[in-house]
Amino acid sequence: MGFAAFSFYPYMRLFQKSKHQATYPPYTIMNLAKYSLDNTKVIYFFLAVLLIGGVFSFGKLGKKEDAPFVIKSAVIMTRYPGAEPAEVERLITEPISREIQSMSGVYKIKSESMYGLSKITFELQPSLSASSIPQKWDELRRKVLNIQPQLPSGSSVPTVSDDFGDVFGIYYGLTADDGFSYEEMRDWAERIKTQVVTADGVMKVALFGVQTEVINIFISVNKLVGMGIDPKQLASLLQSQNQIINTGEISAGEQQLRVVANGMYTTVDDIRNQVITTKAGQVKLGDIAVIESGYMDPASTIMRVNGKRAIGIGVSTDPQRDVVQTGEMVDAKLAELLPLIRVGMQLEPLYLENVIAKEANNGFIINLVESILIVIVIIMLVMGLRAGVLIGSSLIFSIGGTMLIMSFLGVGLNRTSLAGFIIAMGMLVDNAIVVTDNAQIAIARGVDRRKALINGATGPQWGLLGATFIAICSFLPLYLAPSAVAEIVKPLFVVLAISLGLSWVLALTQTTTFGNFILKAKPANGAKDPYDKPFYHKFASILHVLIRKKALTLSAVIALFVASLVIMGMMPQNFFPSLDKPYYRADVFYPDGYSINEVAKEMEAVEAHLLAQPEVDKVSITFGSTPLRYYLASTSVGPKPNFCNILVELKDSKYTKEQEENFDAYMKANYPNAITRTSLFKLSPAVDAAIEIGFIGNNVDTLVMLTNKALEIMHRNPDLINIRNSWGNKIPVWKPIYSQERAQPLGVSRQGMAQSIQIGTNGMPLGEYRKGDQVLPILLKGNTVDSFKINDLRTLPVFGTGTETTSLEQVVSEFDFQYRFSNVKDYNRQMVMMAQCDPRRGMNAIAAFNQVWSQVQKEIQVPEGYTMKYFGEQESQVESNEALAANMPLTFFLMFTVLLLLFKTYRKPIVILLMLPLIFIGIVLGLLVLGKSFDFFAVLGLLGLIGMNIKNAIVLVDQIDIEAKSGKTPLDAVVSATVSRIVPVAMASGTTILGMLPLLFDAMFGGMAATIMGGLLVASALTLFVLPVAYCTILKIKG
Description:
The chain has 1039 residues and is α+β, with helices and mostly antiparallel strands. The chain has 40 helices and 30 strands. Strands 1, 2, 3, 4, 20, 21, 28, 29 and 30 form a nine-stranded antiparallel beta sheet that branches. The two termini are 41 Å apart.
């Protein structure tokens, strides 16, 4: 919009009123249309700049799959080994959350406290500009640093990941046969990372699924106790024998001699040969224990591709650069390295944004060319070959000029900006159609071609400028909305504002200049009135009848409007449509308590089932957490051992929907104990569940009671599936209660008891071993750890100061066995528990939510001090709708102001604005006939319709004024103006409607295309039949 105003400013002085009104309309001789005809070389120069600049810009514009978008979230992770969720929440999560909540610009703080781990997700206000985000992350790091000294000893340093939102859009999996170790796979993955990160346009490269190497010391706990070896002493011995110390320098004559006395272990044999002192004397550690290198078990994350072990390699590219070109650079770097890769290893492409962006852009450009051709052919058929060439050429210059200005503003080509071009397609020719139609009518009446062009352009120029400005304003809420979803579609506004602003300038300059040699100089059959035809006479008589029966006409239209609103409430409504991609994905949640290895084992059969499908190309599964964020709107889960994420690539996108439905049914039939959420790719924010109703408060038992009531209501609804509690299920917890009275006489401390259990289960850390650039933990483990049973814990030897062997049951008062939640979730520093579910396939998500929400509100009494709130897709949709609605008053104020400046009366703007609600009749018709649902992009179509409808109405009301000034009676002025606007209104609407055809079959923009096509068809009819009736009613003109 800013550009539009800037473009028009230099010409404002050309349009001053003149005292001489003989030859041309009431403007100075020095007007833009006349200036263009008098200075054709200047016009040709600027047109050449637009065209050539546009062609060059097209090649240089950054190409992406979707508009660049900053995810304003960071994740803070802190480990506190051994602590229970409630302790983690109280001692780690709450102090950090309290500190960071004092920052300005905080939007939401969500946290999850698990066994030994705190995960805090920190969101900034959506309205914050992208440029201010880095400073905010610096401030966040300072806040976390401030609170660190107050965290308990034994907790790790909190890590702040502000790259949570980074998209690793070029995503590979390095697979290896069973003969390769994870160490060899990691080395090759690191080589690929080092090679690719130097490619031009690459920001960073990340790895996923790399296994942590460890040194395991397996020893019988009985032997340790029997030999009098205390694990604490063993740990301090290994640490003292394995460190780098700055031993300094001494003088040796004239030279300084450096003294090096490092005692680092360089091989595993060094650890085996470590001498330790026992009751029986000195022995080597390797003589009493099995020492070997291995991997952390259980692993934190695992990845498999097509059934083979894999390491994920994600490439994040510069958002300002062309991802297609960056992808070519990455391919060139890989081509140098891949011939050297060992046989049995393979680099599998899993998701390549550069290839997808190229295909998406090519597909959209084909749609764009189709739209241009459709528009030009329609104009040629209705207005003649010459008019078609003249108006079509203005379209080419508008698009070229828009691309040139986009390159200066840094707006690239992506799905959203290309959709902006297609929406604008019909609107771009509106101004040129009006100017050309006016000129052709005047030429047909015998006016000189040059004069006809000047009159045709300067007469309606202010009306056209106002209409163009209003069309731009109708999309203004998109540009000003601070929400995350609105940010994705901002390039659409930029494209529309630039292209529509240019179309007005070109209608007054290029159309008049080219029209002077393209249009016929004289009418073929002599001068005559082009409206003296049976069709126009019949139309005029129908209009007279409608104006005479004003009450009946307006009542019928109002009844239609009410009926359309009722039907709209019953129609399917979705938040975001699915995209047409040969991929689908699934999040699978096993019950809490499942280990990562158990989930990986269970999924082997699922993997085999998927790979047996002839339509499936690749299957990639990550265990323990979601993979690197290869797609903007991806879920983020983990670390969670009972979770896996599946990405399935199909051989063709035509199979996607059917295969995704089949897989969903397969999982629900064969794995009923797992919650499976399959989904197609969407551009909407990813949520944990489609429907989430949360309760916020401070007592866990009360939250459980409230959540269970909501879950019961959900279970009663047959249209809901995957019904669950956001805290998961309770897991069995076995807790030996330490007894001071029994343990202290035996010389067993609380720490000694805990270390014995640790050695018998996961292993106790004794120190570190450096191997190349890696630091490997040294773990002390019981040699029966794999076959360990819960009853073995009772007789587990524990370490004390006495000489006698002591078992665990001798030092505890009781063994407490309970079922507890494995995590605690908070929302803005208060505990939150949610009842979650998804609508059954094919069900209306919004209707399902409304049904559950009303039941929950009716049946659940929320105690004082507790809050009930909805989350999920509904929260995202409400936030986006509110963000759009917030600027609607400003939009209507600007529209009314422009209309007031144009018509200098209140009644005419009111007539025009009263037509707006009636476009709902057309929207409902379009969506019903074309079988589309009302989604977020249909809302965009609705915004576009407001501008298009007002534009048509302005042109008609402006013409009524012109007819009235020529001396006609008010009624005759209304009828003759409407008759003269049939072709421009029908053409403007027809070109837009048919120009939308290619978009109708697009998965993402189909709903928007149906909204505009149906809405504009009805709006055009209303403009020609109902607006004149409303005009006569409000201005009290009798029929």
